[in-house]
Amino acid sequence: MFRTLSFALLTAGAVAFTGPAFAEEDPLKVGMSGGYFPFTFVEQDTLKGFEVDVMEAVAEEMQREVTFVTANFSGLFGMLESGRIDTIANQITITEEREAKYTFTRPYVYDGAQVVVKEGNDAVAGVEDLRGKTVAVNLGSNYEQLLRELPYADDIDIRTYESNIEQDTALGRVDAFVMDRISASQVIKEKPLPLALAGQPFSEIRNALPFRDTEQGRALRDGVDEALSALREDGTLAELSERWFGTDITRH
Amino acid sequence: MSVLDFDYMLGLLPILLGYLPLTLGMAMAGMVLALALACGLAVIRVLEIRGLNAVTLLFISFFRGTPLLVQLFLFYYGLPQVLAFLTQIDGVTATIMGLTLHFSAYMAESIRAAIVGVDRSQTEAALSIGMTNAQLMRRIVLPQATRIAVPTLMNYFIDMIKATSLAFTLGVTELMGATQKEAAGSFLYFEAFVTVAVIYWAIVEAFAWLQRRLETRLNEAYRR
Predict the structure, then answer these.
(1) Using one digit for the tens of pLDDT, what is the confidence trace for A147-197?
(2) What are B62-82's pLDDT values in tens digits?
(3) Global pTM exceeds 0.95
(4) Which of A34, A123, A154, B152 has its Cβ near the most Cβ atoms within 10 Å?
(5) Is A188 among the domain residues?
(6) Residue A7 domain-assigned (yes or no)
(7) What are chain B's domains?
(8) Residue A176 belongs to a domain with what CATH number?
């Protein structure tokens, strides 16, 4: 541990004098939460998921190494901001606020926001029934924003969570949670929690990879974008999507 | 859903135990550094060294007055926006620094209390037989202060072990981070969190046992 500490102090000192040197062969550093099934999750100590497969294919296409950095979702944008990672592969939805601050690749996943309730909860049959209800969303996700844009937003008790929103809905602690339709369906299908989809998705969302809006960030974004386009054309994206979701979520 | 999945928990145990060295390593490094820093701060406070005393008071006030999580975010995500080279500090180092600064503020006060808590007559007796201030500290005051301080310092160490669970917000996959990610893969939240709770509890109990032995030894001279 002391070695890590002194090493970090030494490198901090060295870099302060020489300035950072970004070699082309630096691995692409990709941040993700590791807690978003089936996009990024851990089983038997191994990081898996759609995002992992996509980013590995992107890196291969770019002929670069890739390293994955996992952190709580709320820490990911801070890591991007402070230059500790190059991008975030965690189903980041393109929003106005984020576009003002970051530069995005073209979308690689198209999805919708979905209301999910505890099985047997007939009081909520869709987004229109959320008035007067308690609804959970993940901290830092854009679903809170989507809910606040509803005309009756003031009547919804929105609770933001670090993690475990599925669990708290199954426990009945909140009336519903909002998540993207794809992973909500996966959760219900594969996991032993008594949950059900409520109604249709209520907003199209487009997910892409954000980069820092700097010269270097934009250059990297262009490289990744190119790789994504190539993977879309040769069918790799569709194939990965079929494998994880049984359907192609990478197109409209 | 309703029954505990013991097979899953047994399978999870060795995976999670693999993260124990990191969790304990961060806590131990934090403890050693915090102890050293706290001793310095306590001496400044006891001797009321001019100038340094005011800085020490401000330091203790800030690091005791703000949550550890806020301090960690401040060092890891906030400061690098102002001082770019701080980006080179990795999550483990940042966590150890955060633990050190945060807990040294608390420990400084309990060490100061322990030093002040040694009976005045001890000091007077030592001075009366011609001991110097340094001898007085080393031979008379500090050994007795140690005995007074050990229980509270061990308490802080135990707290520090558990505080390392915040490191996942800085991207350090320690015991708690590993548990959260495994739970996300299996959705067996109850099993995963029961397992990690038992691990933390067992470690803390082991250190509590060490503490009792240490206290018995330090108290030997006082037994009647």
Answers:
(1) 999 999 999 999 998 878 998 999 999 999 999 888 888 888 887 889 999
(2) 999 999 999 999 989 888 878
(3) no
(4) A34
(5) yes
(6) no
(7) 6-222 (1.10.3720.10)
(8) 3.40.190.10
For residue B37, the tally of other CB atoms under 10 A from its CB is 18
Alpha-carbon distance A73 to nearest alpha carbon in chain B (angstroms): 8
Cβ atoms A68, A30 nearer than 8 A: yes
Q: What residue in B sits closest to A14 (Cα-Cα)?
A: B85
Per the CB < 8 A criterion, the answer to whether A191 and A167 are in contact is no
Tokens of B216: 């018995």
Say yes or no: B70 contacts chain A, CB-CB below 8 A. Answer: no
Query: Within 10 Å of residue A180's Cβ, how many Cβ atoms?
Result: 24
DSSP-assigned beta bridge partners for residue A36: A40
State whether A194 and A144 are in the same domain.
yes
Handedness of CA A237, A241, A246, A252 (dihedral sign): negative
Q: Are residues A238 and A118 in the same domain?
A: no
| A71 at interface of B, judged by CB pairs closer than 8 A | yes
d(CA A198, CA A182): 13
Does a structural domain hold residue A197?
Answer: yes
Burial class, B220, CB count within 10 angstroms (exposed 0-12 / middle 13-18 / buried 19+): exposed
Domain with A137 in it? 111-205
A224 shares a domain with A100: yes
Say yes or no: A52 and A165 in one domain.
no
On whether both A85 and A198 belong to a single domain, the answer is no
Give the CA distances from residue B90 to residues A4, A82, B6, B86, B171, in Å, rounded to whole numbers and listed in that order.
9, 12, 36, 9, 9
Average pLDDT over residues A134-145: 88
Per-residue pLDDT reduced to its tens digit, B104-128: 999 999 999 999 999 999 999 999 9
Task: Please tell me the distance from the alpha carbon of residue B44 to that of residue B22, in angstroms, as a whole number.
Answer: 33
Which of A15, A48, A81 is the closest to B77 by Cβ?
A: A81
- Which ipTM value was assigned to this complex? 0.78
In terms of domains, do A21 and A98 share one? yes
Average predicted confidence (pLDDT) for chain A: 88
The count of domains in chain A is: 2
Can you name the residues that pair with A116 across neighbouring β-strands? A177, A197
Q: Is residue A170 part of a domain?
A: yes
Q: Which residues of B touch A190 (CB under 8 A)?
A: 187
Taking an 8 Å cut-off on Cβ atoms, the answer to whether B90 and A192 are in contact is no
- Cβ–Cβ of B185/A41 closer than 8 Å? yes
